[in-house]
Amino acid sequence: MAVEGTCASGGGFLRRSCGRASVGLCVYCAQPFCADHGTLHADYYQVCQRKTCLAKFADVEAHHRWLEAHESANRMSMCAEDGCQERMAHSCQRCRLRFCETHLVDRPVTEHRLEGRVRVVQLMCPHCAERRALWD
C-alpha cells in the first residue's frame, strides 16, 4: 500500500522534519514515516520511532503476554489477579478478564468516540487502570 507524503519525523523546535519519501503511516499518531523512522510489522501494523508510539507498541505486546498468563485463572472460575484465591465475580471492561469484587474499581476514563472525547466511568482491574496513563 502506497503512502502519500513525506516523513514527518525528526522535526521539532526550530528543526525541519526528515522530508524523505514515506513508507508507512503510524497506527498510533497517524503520521507518515520513512524507512529510517519507523517499522513495518506484519498485518500492516506500522509504527513510527516516536517515543510515545514505541511505548504504546511495547505496551500492547506486554498486555497480550499478560492476558495469556492470567486467563488460566478464569478457566478455573478464579479471580485473574496474581495470588488471589477468590472466585471471579465481574469482568474488567478493558481486558474482559474476570476478577473478584476486591480487584475491580470504578475508574474515570476519556474515550474517543465518533461524537468526540467522552468522559465515562468503567469497571477496571489494576493492570488496565495502570495502562491508562499511557493511552489517555
Characterise this structure:
β7 and β8 form a beta hairpin. The protein is elongated. The longest helix is centred in the middle third of the chain and has 25 residues. The mean pLDDT is 88. It has a two-stranded antiparallel ribbon. The two termini are 30 Å apart. It has two helices and eight strands. With 136 residues, the chain is α+β, with helices and mostly antiparallel strands.
Structure summary:
The protein has 136 residues and is of the alpha+beta class. It is 26% helix and 24% strand. The chain has helices at 51-75, 126-135, and strands at residues 24-25, 32-33, 38-40, 46-48, 90-91, 98-99, 105-113, 116-124.
How are the SSEs ordered, and which strands pair?
Blueprint: E1 24-25, E2 32-33, E3 38-40, E4 46-48, H1 51-75, E5 90-91, E6 98-99, E7 105-113, E8 116-124, H2 126-135
Antiparallel strand pairs: 1-2, 3-4, 5-6, 7-8
Strand order of the largest sheet: 1-2
Query: Quick check: average pLDDT?
Result: 88
Biggest sheet details: 2 strands, antiparallel
From the spread of the alpha carbons, the general shape counts as elongated
Structural class: alpha+beta
Parts with pLDDT < 50 across at least 5 consecutive residues = none
Q: Termini, distance in Å?
A: 30 Å
Proportion of beta-strand residues: 15-25%
Residue share in helices? 25-40%
SSE series: EEEEHEEEEH
The total strand number stands at 8
Rg on CA atoms, Å: 19 Å
Helix count from the secondary structure assignment: 2
